[in-house]
Design brief:
With 637 residues, this protein is of the alpha+beta class. It has 28 helices and twelve strands. Among the domains are: 21-164, no CATH class; 168-230 and 263-315, no CATH class; 321-417, Tetratricopeptide repeat domain (Serine Threonine Protein Phosphatase 5, Tetratricopeptide repeat, Alpha Horseshoe). It has helices at 3-8, 25-29, 33-40, 116-123, 145-149, 153-157, 173-184, 205-211, 213-216, 224-227, 238-246, 263-267, 326-340, 345-360, 364-381, 386-399, 403-414, 419-432, 437-452, 457-472, 476-493, 499-514, 518-535, 540-555, 559-577, 582-597, 601-618, 624-634, and strands at 48-50, 59-61, 67-75, 78-87, 92-95, 105-108, 124-125, 129-131, 135-137, 140-141, 270-274, 277-280. The strands form four sheets. Strands 1, 2, 3, 4, 5 and 6 form a six-stranded antiparallel sheet that branches. It has a two-stranded antiparallel sheet with strand order 7-10. The longest helix is centred in the last third of the chain and has 19 residues, at 559-577.
């Protein structure tokens, strides 16, 4: 940090832009004394505090019911999460999760996603501000009234009234899950799937709850607020939660003896995430004694996601959403321009951070301007960050539909001195120019091998991409050794049961299938399915492997096994996308055509009619897909 910058930044900075008018939780106490008093005793209210003297950090994150982690600012760009945390279970200090003993983790203050700013945003209430040296200053430590109800100044001024304050209870169950997930982690997007075999992910309750059949079949009757009173300390009584279960499950017949165990003990088990920490698994289900991570019986595989009509409250941005940090990024740019001048490299760095943040929070249009300014400054200064900024601006332009300029910028970034940027930019060019994708992936691969060596997992991913590009050109001969090399790298570096290993098995199996090398293709697809069933049981990749194997078995006249696999793929895609998505229609069409091809015309009609209805609704009655299915149905007459 320059001496000059430290000298001019003595007083707290003035926050730029229009900021929400928070009243502070003390203002709420006058009219809502009972809720205020109860909430003040909750873990939420104690989520953040200045660390006590003698602690290893400046800030204490966590209420202390399970743990307290310490954080300190190390310079104007960085906060450190300290390597030692306090654990209530042992009443002693231990290694912070994700750390090596004695090694702190650095978090940038200004970053698009994994930033210290987001940590403070979710552990405090009100407008977060910057003071001298870009130190983060919460308006109110911990989670209090306005963290959920939004800015309350207008509500106070009006003397109350529902119209002047926000209320999460006006959201539906899906929106409440998303709302709480703003800080507790949101459910995965359609087509994505978390690593459910990672015990640490159990602490992300909204994500797990979104998968549970109880939630998906609740018609909106089950949400976070069903079991948890946000105005009170966490209830730890199993009986209280069992009472909630009994409201839907009036009479339950168990196949095994329960020995008086509570509902939540068995169906929401405690998972040991680290030696010091346990979390409740919110994926409500039936578990074995040896696996508390994934339910052994997963009917939710065939239950589509819960979809409810949106509410007016649900359309509002949560008070602690990352996008509310936008003024701080603008503030950092302005203050650095004042202190250092508009052409300084640190100004460009702040502009880049601002642009990346705007892109990350869903405003690529606004992101282009600060990235262009950063690019111009870096070019004048011959700064090494130029190539990364060019890449970032190109990505924003792709989102805006300006593919021509994006391609030019990717070309410039790819030929720069930063090999990591070069590898990524060549891969991006492959996506923009499929006709020359193999050439671009080859250059990306060369750059990646220079960075990490020939046996790195990132090399294996690029080998996959290059092989698929060659396969598109029916160059099976050159594609095959690339996939075999990728598979060898992944088995050695990641293990034979890793998700990425399974992906390569699927790709290689598909390639061999195209060459009619049936025996090995079937073996590879079955191996992939076995892995994915364990590590990603509800994934697009598993649906793909099932579809591939179904095609193989159909060609071997095993219609029954083939149909079962296609129904498995259909169930997965329905559980991911819902029942009326075009991806589901593809599965239905495949199933209908299989049954039709094996002389089961009556059975084929139902899936084909469902597929037609989806295509007509989502793509239009004159879409090629709808016309093809109508033609197929006509031949069933």
């Amino acid at each position: 940090m320059s001496l000059f910058l430290r000298c001019v930044m003595i007083l707290p900075l003035v926050t730029l832009g229009v900021r929400a008018q928070f009243a502070g939780s003390q203002q709420c106490q006058t009219c809502h004394p009972d809720q205020f008093t109860a909430q003040a005793k909750s873990g939420h209210a104690r989520a953040l505090a200045p660390a006590t003297p003698g602690s290893p950090g400046e800030w204490a994150f966590g209420a202390g019911r399970k743990a307290i982690t310490y954080v300190s600012q190390t310079d104007e760009e960085t906060y450190a999460e300290r390597a030692a945390s306090y654990y209530a279970s042992s009443k002693s200090m231990g290694v912070t999760p994700g750390h090596q003993a004695g090694i702190d983790l650095a978090y940038p203050t200004f970053a698009p996603s994994k930033s210290a700013m987001r940590c403070f945003r979710c552990h405090s209430t009100g407008n977060l501000t910057l003071s001298a040296g870009f130190a983060l200053r919460p308006a109110e430590n911990g989670i209090h009234c306005e963290a959920c109800h939004g800015p309350g100044a207008a509500h106070v001024a009006a003397g109350g009234g529902a119209a002047t304050i926000r209320n999460p209870r006006r959201r539906n169950a899906v929106e409440i899950n998303e709302f709480c997930g703003t800080c507790h982690r949101k459910p995965p997007e359609a087509g994505d799937e978390k690593d459910w075999m990672n015990p640490w992910n159990v602490r992300h309750q909204p994500a797990s709850l979104s998968q549970a059949v109880c939630f998906r079949k609740s018609a909106g009757g089950l949400s976070c607020l069903t079991c948890h009173d946000p105005h009170a300390p966490l209830n730890t009584s199993n009986k209280a939660y069992d009472l909630r279960c009994s409201q839907c499950h009036h009479e339950v017949r168990h196949r095994t003896a329960t020995a008086g165990a509570s509902c939540v003990t068995c169906h929401m088990p405690q998972v040991q995430a680290t030696p010091e920490l346990q979390f409740t698994n919110h994926w409500i289900g039936i578990y074995t004694k040896t696996n508390f991570l994934l339910p052994v019986a997963r009917p939710d595989r065939s239950v589509p996601p819960l979809v409810l009509p949106p509410t007016a409250e649900g359309k509002l941005v949560p008070p602690n959403a990352p996008s509310t940090l936008r003024p701080l990024f603008a503030q950092a740019v302005t203050e650095r321009e004042k202190a250092l001048g508009p052409g300084d490299a640190k100004v460009a760095h702040s502009l880049k951070a601002q642009g990346l943040f705007l892109r990350e929070t869903g405003d690529p249009g606004a992101a282009a301007l600060p990235l262009r300014r950063a690019m111009d400054i870096d070019r004048r200064n011959s700064d090494r960050e130029l190539f990364e900024v060019e890449e970032a601006l190109a990505q924003v332009l792709v989102l805006a539909g300006n593919r021509r300029e994006a391609s030019e910028l990717f070309q410039q970034a790819a030929t720069g001195a930063d090999l990591q940027v070069s590898a990524r930019s060549y891969a991006s060019l492959a996506g923009l120019d499929p006709a020359r994708a193999d050439s671009y992936y080859t250059r990306a691969l060369e750059a990646e091998e220079k960075i990490d060596g020939p046996d790195h997992p990132r090399v294996a991913l690029l080998l996959n991409s290059l092989a698929l590009a060659l396969e598109q050109k029916e160059n099976f001969r050159d594609a095959e050794p690339l996939l075999r090399r990728a598979l060898s790298i992944q088995r050695k570096a990641l293990g034979p049961s890793h998700f990425d290993t399974a992906g390569t098995l699927v790709n290689l199996g598909s390639l061999l299938q195209n060459q009619h090398r049936v025996a090995e293709s079937e073996r590879l697809e079955r191996e992939a399915i076995g892995i994915l069933e364990q590590v990603r049981p509800q994934s697009v990749e598993l649906a793909t492997a099932c579809t591939n194997l179904a095609d193989l078995l159909s060609n071997q006249q095993d219609a029954s096994a083939s149909a079962a696999l296609l129904r498995r793929a259909l169930a997965i895609d329905e559980a991911i996308y819902g029942t009326d998505d075009p991806e589901v229609a593809v599965d239905l069409t495949n199933l209908g055509e299989l049954l039709k091809g094996h002389g089961q015309a009556a059975a084929a009609r139902s899936p084909l009619l469902r597929a037609l209805a989806i295509y007509e609704k989502r793509l239009g009655p004159d879409s090629p897909q709808a016309r093809d299915v109508r033609e197929s149905l006509r031949h069933l007459q």
